[in-house]
Amino acid sequence: MIQVHAYSVAREASSLQGSWYDESAYRSQAESARAPAIVPSPVNCTLRIARSSREYRVQVDGDRLCRGYSSHGDRVPLSDEEEGRLHPDRQEPHPRHLRAHDFLLPAGGRSHLAHGLTGERMRVPLGVLDQSPVVSGHSPAEAIAETISLARLAEELGYHRYWLAEHHGIAALADPCPEILVSRVASATSRIRVGTGGILLPYYSALKIAEQFRMLEALFPGRIDLGIGRAPGGDPRTALAMADGEFEGAERLPQQVQDLVGFLDRSLPPGHPFAGVRAQPEGDTSPEPWLLGSSDYSGALAAQLGLRFAFAHFISAHGGEAVARAYRDQYQPSAREPKPWSLVCVFVICAKTRAEAERLAASIDLRRLHMARGVDAPVPTLEEAKAYRYSLQERAYVEEQRARLVLGDPGEVREKLLEMKEKFSADTGSSRRRSSTERFRNIRVPSPGIDL
Fold first, then answer.
1. Where are the beta strands (DSSP E) in 9-143?
2. Can you tell me the mean pLDDT for 117-134?
């Protein structure tokens, strides 16, 4: 699986509507372009879509095709028999499971950005990782409202997951409570998986997080992801205030993650101090945990605990291939995940032309410079970015940061993502989700500690 952050804009206007997202235009394009550009192998990716300088992160995974879309991208109906066979317990529209073969990639436009990459063997659904960015001249409340609107659009366009990030005290990012926003986004949608990317676990009780996400799973069964991180998500003073003066970060994380998974799976061993403590409400399904990280430490921890792993290439552009390889080599099978499962999260700016993508990158360039200098300000608009005069040193820094970025037209972006998929050995399907009862039959209790 590859998770891509893609910055895709139809035009400079502030509306998400327009020809880029126009269904009739998309269908016409798909009809005329269905033959060329076969992708040689499947790839999971995530796109970043935006309103002008408003950024949204996007993630991808799985082996699904949005309901009603054929392998060539044009809309086709599902028969009642097909729908009943694929999803006998669901009355609502739901993504369609297909065999992994014969998908073509129409050239350009919405077929790449709104409906994902396709390949000979598999169509790749997309997901969204949204930080709820606050654009200059707009309020955090507006950013949260736009997150909800984007989630609805993502589901309409066939995205598979929608993840929300946690940050504290940052003017450019509006969401300090992703567990609350997950509930709102899930209630505003009906099919898309919703989760965190991620919860900053060192700030919280493992039991409380298990209870929160069990409640979310009870409200939205089969739709909740629990992405777990350890970063402070803010400046040092804010981190101390969040942790009541004792932020421990990585020191507590291994035990916290083991406890959290133990509460979710009812698998804490008899000698554990919390053995027998139950995280309510219990049900037949459980949230799907992911361990997020940008270092070999996080990859090693995910491997030791038998968890899915998401590598943040958009944070750390170097060494990720080695981290992903070590994760697979060191993986310890668990009852929840018998085999390693990884994704790589990539920052992408994708537009109709490379020149347009370069123009859009100006906002992100200035935002990164602000971060490096400790400037706490909203995300710059394109106009503000264009007006800024960089020094030679600043320009060199911005160019260096481009290593974390995939930028270009849809064809360029596709080729780069396929290359990264190979480098990271990213997974290209989704494992069958088992019920809690199935997992308990073969539960393997982790040791109380972990040796990294």
1. 57-59, 64-65, 96-97, 127-130
2. 68
